[in-house]
Every structure is written in C-alpha cells, then in structure tokens.
Amino acid sequence: MRIIYITLFYFSLLLSYASYATSVNDFCVADLQLPNTPSGYPCKSETNVTVDDFLFSDFVPRNTIDPFNVRLTTAFVTSLPGLNGLGISAARGDFGLNGTVPMHFHPDANELLIVVKGQLTAGFITPTKVDLKTVKPGDSLVIPKGLLHFGVNTDVGNAIASAFFSSSNPKMEILDYLLFGNDLSTSIIANPTLLDVSQIIKLKAQFRGSG
Amino acid sequence: MRIIYITLFYFSLLLSYASYATSVNDFCVADLQLPNTPSGYPCKSETNVTVDDFLFSDFVPRNTIDPFNVRLTTAFVTSLPGLNGLGISAARGDFGLNGTVPMHFHPDANELLIVVKGQLTAGFITPTKVDLKTVKPGDSLVIPKGLLHFGVNTDVGNAIASAFFSSSNPKMEILDYLLFGNDLSTSIIANPTLLDVSQIIKLKAQFRGSG
Amino acid sequence: MRIIYITLFYFSLLLSYASYATSVNDFCVADLQLPNTPSGYPCKSETNVTVDDFLFSDFVPRNTIDPFNVRLTTAFVTSLPGLNGLGISAARGDFGLNGTVPMHFHPDANELLIVVKGQLTAGFITPTKVDLKTVKPGDSLVIPKGLLHFGVNTDVGNAIASAFFSSSNPKMEILDYLLFGNDLSTSIIANPTLLDVSQIIKLKAQFRGSG
Amino acid sequence: MRIIYITLFYFSLLLSYASYATSVNDFCVADLQLPNTPSGYPCKSETNVTVDDFLFSDFVPRNTIDPFNVRLTTAFVTSLPGLNGLGISAARGDFGLNGTVPMHFHPDANELLIVVKGQLTAGFITPTKVDLKTVKPGDSLVIPKGLLHFGVNTDVGNAIASAFFSSSNPKMEILDYLLFGNDLSTSIIANPTLLDVSQIIKLKAQFRGSG
Amino acid sequence: MRIIYITLFYFSLLLSYASYATSVNDFCVADLQLPNTPSGYPCKSETNVTVDDFLFSDFVPRNTIDPFNVRLTTAFVTSLPGLNGLGISAARGDFGLNGTVPMHFHPDANELLIVVKGQLTAGFITPTKVDLKTVKPGDSLVIPKGLLHFGVNTDVGNAIASAFFSSSNPKMEILDYLLFGNDLSTSIIANPTLLDVSQIIKLKAQFRGSG
Amino acid sequence: MRIIYITLFYFSLLLSYASYATSVNDFCVADLQLPNTPSGYPCKSETNVTVDDFLFSDFVPRNTIDPFNVRLTTAFVTSLPGLNGLGISAARGDFGLNGTVPMHFHPDANELLIVVKGQLTAGFITPTKVDLKTVKPGDSLVIPKGLLHFGVNTDVGNAIASAFFSSSNPKMEILDYLLFGNDLSTSIIANPTLLDVSQIIKLKAQFRGSG
C-alpha cells in the first residue's frame, strides 16, 4: 500500500506546495521602489527574494555626527530590506576620544544599548529622574521610547557600542540639529525655549542653520 | 582642532542628512490617489509633502443630516491627508433647535465629545445600562467604540460640539440610514427587528429606501 | 415644516452619502494583483466589490497532505479576499482511517479546532507539558500560536474537523516538509537535530528532498 | 567525550529548563477571578494550568434568544479561559423553524460564519449596499467588524451554524435589546430614531423595557 | 403561540442577559488604585462603574506652565478613568498675551490641535523642514508623534486651543524642564548639547534645576 | 514683571510636576511578583523604580545547551525588568568548537543576529527555500518570526554572537527538546513525524525523555 501512498504523495505534494506557496507569507522583504505605507513598504515578489535581502555585511564605521566625534552605521529597513514589517533594527556607534552621541530621542522606538568595547557614560532623562550609568562591555542599558538620552565615551581610548531598536526604521531626533540646523528663525527659537539670542546665533553658526 | 572639526562637520552633515532623510519616516501623508491598505493609504513622496497636508482650514458647518437638523463637518484622512496612519481625527456638529445626531455607532473608533456652545443631552446605551448626561461647555464625554449613542440639543438656542475619534477614518453607522435608506426589503427588515411593516414603510418613505 | 425638512433631506442625503462613501472604510477586500504589504493586500476599489468577495462556497476536501491520509481545504485571504486585514480565517480537515495532520506549527496564528465528525486525538507540545486530548463532536481545543501540534484520527471511520485561525493568511510549518522536503543537505540537518544520517536519508526519499 | 557531554547535559538541562520556564510565556490562561485589563485577564500561574483550560466540551444548544427561536452557545474567554489574549473565539447557533439571529453587530470582532446544517439567508448591511446570500453547508460568509447583520433559517427544518470571531470576548449588540429592553424612555428613543411612539411602546412590552 | 414565546422569553432573557453580562467587555474603566500595565489600568468592577466615569466636567484653565504664561488642563485617564484602554485624550490650553506652549514633544501620541479663540503660530520641526502656520478658529493642525513643536499666542488678546491625542495618557516632554529643571549636572548637559555653560547656569536658575 | 513670573513659576511648577508625575507613564518596569498579563507584567510603583531596573550587567556565558556545546545568556524581561512592554530583548551565544544552536524557532519574535567573533554558518528554512550564509563579524542576519533556523560555529576557534528579538520575552522552541525531552510517547511521536521508532528511542535517551 505504501507504494500507492508514495505515488499520490508526489502528485499531491506539488499541489500542496503550490497551495502553500500562495497562502504563506513568511516574510515581506521591502520593495523600496514602491511608496511606503503606515505598516511598512510593499513586499517584493517572492520570486525575487534572495538570502542577501536578509544579510547586512557592512557594519563598519560610517556617518560622522560632527562635531561630536562619533560615527554611526545603521542597519535599518532602507539598507536591510528583510527587516520590513519586522519591528527591529540595529545601529553601531564608534566613539573617538570624548566622542558623544548628542542629546536625542527616538519617538518611535525603544532601544537596547550594548557596549562592545571601552566605556560609556549614558542615561536617559525624565523631568524628575536623571539616571546616568557607566556602561561597560557585558552591560546593556534599556532606553524607553521617547526619552531624551545621550552617551559619552568616558574611556581613555575609543569605544564601540551596538544599539537595537523596536522599529524597522527608527527616527533619531537630535536636539541641536532640530533647533540650530534648519531655517527656523532665531526669535522663533528663543520664545518657546528661553535660550538667549546670542546662544542661538552661536549654535546656528556651528550647525549650519539659517533664519 | 576645532577648525578641522567644523570642516569635517560641514561635509559629514551632508552625508548624515542624506542618510537621515532616507531612514526617517516622520509621517506618512496619504496619497489618496493610490489604493488604500488595511493600515491606511500609501505615503506621498516626502518631496511633495507641504505643511498644508497637515492643516484643515474648513471647520465650518457642512453636511446636513436630515431630517435631524444637524450639520456635520469631518476632518478625516480623506480631507486632511496628514492624519494618515495616525489613528486620530475630528468632527464638528452644529445643532439647530432640537437638532439631533441620530442613533448611531462607530464600530472602529472611540469618541471624546466636547461641548463648545449650548447644551446637549447625550449618552450611550448598553443592554443593562443607559447613561444619559446633560453635557455643557467645559464638559466632555467618553463614548467607547461600538456603543449605540446619540446627542440632542436641549438648549434654547443652537449648540456646537466637537468630537474626536481614535481612528483616522472612523465609520458612522446611522441606524435609520442602514435600516430604511437602502434597498433592503420590508419583509427582510421586519423579521430580525420585529418592527411593524407599517412602521418600516413609513420610515422607508422618509429615508428614501426602496425594496 | 416637515415638508421642507424632507426636501432638504433628499438633497443633503445625496451629499452626505457622497461624503460618507469617501470617509467610510467598512472593509478592505484584497486586490490580489497588487503587491502585499505588512498589513495585508491593498484594497480593491469599492465599486468593484461584490458580495461574492465575502463568500467561500467550496469547503470540500481538497489538497492531500501525503503520506498522512488527510485532505485540507483552506479559506484564507488568497481564496476569500474579503478576509483581507480582518485577522481571521478557516480550514477544513478530512481524515481517512488513521489520517494524521503531521507535526506542525503556525507561527503567526492561534487556532481553535472544532471536531465536526468522528474523533481526533490532538494536543500541543511544550518543553515541560504534553497535553493530549480525545476531541469529539461538540468539543473544541485551543492551540496557542507557535506551539508544535498534530491531530490523529482515532475513530473507526473518517473524521472531519474545522480549524479557525487568528490570521487572514496563517502559515503552516510542517516539520517533515521543512527538514526532508527541500535541498538542505543531510549533514546540515544532522548537526543541529542530532538525527541519524540514515534516518534523514530515508525521510528525504519519502518527502522528495535533495541535498 | 560523549559521556562528559551527557553528564553536563543532565545538569545543564535542569538549568536551562528552569531558565526557559521563567522566560517562556507560551500562553496566558485567564485567571477569571482577577480584574480584567485592556489586553485581557491576568494569567493563571503556569503550575495551575491544565489541558482542560484549553478544551471546551459543551458546544450544545444553550441560551435562547427569544422571541427569535434561536439558541446560542458561546466559547468565549469566560467559558474557555485558554482563549485569553489570543484574539479568537467561537459560537454555535441552533435555528428552529424560521429561527432568526436578530439584527445585531459586533463592534470589536470580525466574523466568519459557517453553515453546518440547513440553509440560512444572511448578510450585512451598509448605507449603500445590502448583500444577502443563501448560505449552505460548505459555504462560509465573512462579516466585517461593526456591520449590521442577521441570519434567518430559510430551510424547511432546523439549521445549525458556527461563527468564529477575531476577539476572545466579542460583544454582540442586538438592536431590539438596546432600544427596547432597558429603561431608556420612549421619548428619548423616538427622537434620534424617528420610530413612532406606538411602535416603541409595543416593542418595549415585548422586550421587557421600562421607561 | 405568541403567549408561550413571551413566557419563555422572559425566562430566557434573564439567562441571556446574565450570559451577556459576563461575556461583554464594553469598556474598561480604570481602577486607578491597582498597578498600571503596559496596556493600561485594570478595569473597575462593572457594578461600580457609573456614567460619571465617562464624564469630565472641569475643562477650565488650570496648571500654569511658567514662565510661559499658558495654563493647561488635561483630560487624561488619570482624571477621566473611562478613557482607559481607548487610546484617546484631550487637553485645553489657555494662552495669555504672548503666552507660549514651550518647545516639547509627545513621544507616544499624535496630536490634533484646534484653535477655539484667538490665533496661534504653531508648527513642528524636522531636521529638514520647519512648518509654521498661523492657526485660527476653525483651523486644525496635525502634529505627528515625536516631532518637536510649540505654539505661541500671536493674537492681541488671550487665545484658547484644544488638543486631542492618540493615547489615553500622553507624555509631554518639555525641553526646558528636561534640560534645566532637574539635577543633571551642568557639564553633563554641555557635552551632548554644546550649550554654553553660562547659558545652562542661567536657565537652571530659572527652571529650578540643581547639579 | 519677571520676578512675579518666577514666584508663580515656583509655585505652579510644583503643581505641574505633580500633575505630570501622575499623568506620565514613561515606562512600565515589570513587577515580577504580580501575575503576568497578555500585554506584559504590571508596573512597579514609580517610586520603587531605579536605574538598575534598566541595566543588565551580566552578559557572560551562562546556560549550556547540551549536547550542542553552546552557552546562552538572555536579557529578557525576567532578568531585565525595564524591558517590560517594550517589545525588545537580547541574547548572547558563546559557541565552542563545532558548537551549534540547535534547530529551533521563535514563534513570537523576529531576530537580528550579529556575529561578534569567529564565524557562523546560519540560515532559516522554508518549504521551498533554504538560505544558508557564512556570517562573520560585522555581518548581521535577519530571521523572521516562526522560521526554523540554527547556527553552527564553522570557525577554527570559539565564536560569539549577539541576537536581538522583537519581544520582551521571546520563546525558544528547540525541536529536540520538544520531541525527545518530555513524556510524549514514542508511538505518538512516530505517527505525525514518520521518524523511526528506533531513532526516537535513541534520542529520548539522549534528551532525557520518558514515555
């Protein structure tokens, strides 16, 4: 009887594979050419998906955040399309001496920071609590969504950290870039921050803002 | 050394801006020309987004819900495309004398009703509780998703209310329109509602239903 | 005064219908020709939607899962496009004598299994608990997402069961198909499973795997 | 070397089981004695969980929805605590001659209706479309969340249907019970529905409403 | 026969009411005495719920945000427990002459701002775009989650605005309070913001910060 | 006038801090003593929260997964309570020579694997695709939720990898432990897997299963 099973099996397996192929949505690799949606990019056709859509091979120091002496590399959905719809991503920070990830927040992503080399002083800020920690290799620090935070290399040499995010495409809102790096006018900034006009002008010069 | 930083900074800022521009998804303004998805409309290209996509300038009395002597204006994603994917929207109701928002429910949105002018009697209905309140300026009333509710102007003049919803595109299911405003046949209506045939015919005439 | 109301009503109803038509998203029937997104398929234009998009008329025995003597029929979004975005779907299993739904799991869907005819022995497996039950007509069994489970016809005749899922497009990961039905090489399988090479080769022959 | 592995293995397995036991949240069976939360009931301690928390053995005709000649049985989280947090549940309807599930809606759950025996005429209602279908064994009908719907036994004998929901605890809002079964006053009902006072009084008598 | 139905009906209605009472979770009014959860507060027992849990009667000017000449009143879950789990809330801002809602962001809530009286200049800030608008009565402005924004009264008299949020308990992170109102040390602030030490000391004095 | 502002400011700031303290839910640190819920553990009282709730200082090799020559350490919510409700967590794997993370899947979490030292051969398995990659330091690999996967140290020395998950408490379902490490009887296993009885008995001995 087994032989009959086997024969049927070969035939029906084709059918069931075909049926599973259409009904299975194991992943949704981003087709970055199509317009984004609130839930992420439309999916590439499965026939065009390859394992390389899931691999990021370039976690080397890259974009400098000047003048803060830090370089950032990001594995977000736009460079690692297999992350699409998965709610996870990563970044690497390479800190020079006194290097600092400037004061910023991620409105849409929780972060888990892991120190790989050296030592950072890091923490997040709430109106009533300021929690700073010296974070070393083997330590990791949770930074909940939307809390203002920063990290400073307080080691005698370079430092390296990895950060993981609960979003495939987290936003990084850097205070100095927002306040001093665009065309927001000085008086508009002064009013809701109470910063001195001279301070604003000085930092606009540094961060290339106009207005 | 500062001068070198600054120089590098100008260069790298360009890079990092470019990099942030691709990785940041601050918002997803609806491209209303493309097909909707379960999570909302696809996003307009960021280069076509303007501040006017986030501004609704037309909160004036508009669509009359007759014969109930109420006019409704809605700031939903279809008229305010910046709301796309944000899970929030608003409406304004202008009530004439005895004006009534008819019995209805929003299956997909919680509501917060705020009286701006005059006085409404409003409430929601559950099988075991009927909670009516006289709601005045400065009051606001919560109406959880899917509960049958209504509002009547019980003031001596006109009344105005704002309503806020936990959806960018809330549905408003008005009982009379559903039961008497389409081509559902009288006998089909009578069976699962136990309404009298004469009552159904009378209201079909009023609400333009056929069938 | 009523006559005026009525007149206004006819006019304004047209307006409000038009306005509701644009703002209402009662459902999102899948346009299966467009690329999928993480939240489901884009919606068909409402003017093309018909009641048949919501009806599945073909719950008859269909794809055989051989050599397990079971036939499966699925009402997933790909055959019932009205399910798009709704997070629900169904399947029917027809079990021959000793028919077995092989060891599998649904990573993205909880399941509710209802026996319609006959008797199944079914259960799910955790590292510390194995919960087997004899399930009869009138019984239903919950199988939480991601738990390994199976079902065996332990009746003297055929058996029929319905299964319901908390996803519009649930995945079904069958162990034997994953391990022995593709081109994964025998040594690669042996290492992380500790299965004997002879066992792997035997099952690869049965499940048509290469490698 | 293998012997050492095995020894270590027995020891470490205990450790890893312990560690997995605490870190694994395979399911969250409802502790119905504790207060509910917006995401569902708190979980029973895993040591008190048994397979019976996942089994519902009582899918027999139960609560009569009078005077509609239909009996409903529900497998919701309150009777099947293993459903807690899983977003799925089921009901069974037994229809007598002309039996009718009265006009109602589920604000928080999509529905998949499957006819098991006999024949139902069923459908859902939108302001512009009324989609009625005769649904027979082997057919299933999708009813999206919040749409007004009903089902009538149009067979010559009894009929049975199963319904599946995308919620562990779906609400069923029956129009007649909401409008005529509580203490909402007749005049309050008349105003936002335009039903005749005599009609309301008649149905209040039938549905035991006061006010 | 009708009389029998009615009799049965009275009896069975009791049963079905009881059954619906346990299975229906129409709302989840916060029990603020119990510990919060990630999805909101546990629900008050339904027998203790009253209509007043859904009504907020105190939308009058309240907490002053000094020295910015603005008063804020919030209808969040902690003062309006019926909002629990509903993902919506509201606030009212009363602006004196030149009154300003200081630079802030809501990491967990989208906002819809509606001007009730007077005129505000408001906008949100991104690294590449600054979108300011003069917003008047009848206008409303969308402010997506996590974007830095502010509002200034640019009318000749007082101004009033309502704001609606896509969270029952939105956070308001005010830059000055975070940077200058706690015990974060001056040098720690200076490093990741590049603000001058003298500026920090001056604002710490104004915002009561130590450190 | 400034002096008056300041005075008011000190007074009102107390008020607004108090008000913000109650309305702000910046985070929800797990109170592990209370029963879990479907959305995570109830929150510790904010007054008991310290920065140490957000810090994990113990990312050293720990639980051995024998006989696979791999040690795993997990920073999940049960050891890092600040992760509660945040949808993110991490693990570290230390691979000995030929060390292998055995065939497993995470039904509720997407994974991002980053190789820190050495070289792994890793991949995930679908019915139609097997995607294996050699992953080196600086590489990272995406493993979507529910896909069967494994990792083998193919370097000449030890290897170290970090893994990040889109869940605060991800499940790890190891095939061998599920099939051979509990009291599931040999015949029950054989039927839905088609494994030979002798193979099952051999692996039950190795994985300490009974039955």
Automatic annotation (TrEMBL), chains A, B, C, D, E, F:
Say where the protein is mainly found. secreted
Taxonomy, superkingdom: Eukaryota
Q: Which cellular component terms (GO) are annotated to the entry?
A: apoplast; extracellular matrix
Task: Give UniProt keywords alphabetically.
Answer: Apoplast, Disulfide bond, Glycoprotein, Manganese, Metal-binding, Secreted, Signal
- SS bond list: C28-C43
Compartments annotated for it: namely: Secreted, Extracellular space, Apoplast
The residues that cross the membrane are none
Q: Which residues bind Mn(2+)?
A: H104, H106, E111, H149
The residues covered by the Cupin type-1 domain are 56-201
Query: Which Pfam families does the record associate with it?
Result: Cupin_1
Q: Where does oxalate bind?
A: H106, E111
Q: Which GO molecular function annotations are given, in alphabetical order?
A: manganese ion binding
Q: What range does the record give for the signal peptide?
A: 1-23
- The answer, when asked if Phosphoprotein is one of the entry's keywords, is no
By its UniProt entry, which Gene3D superfamilies does this protein fall under?
A: Jelly Rolls
Q: Which PANTHER family match?
A: GERMIN-LIKE PROTEIN SUBFAMILY 3 MEMBER 3
Recorded family membership: Belongs to the germin family.
> Which named protein is this?
Germin-like protein
From what organism does this protein derive? Medicago truncatula (Barrel medic)
Chain's gene name: 11428621
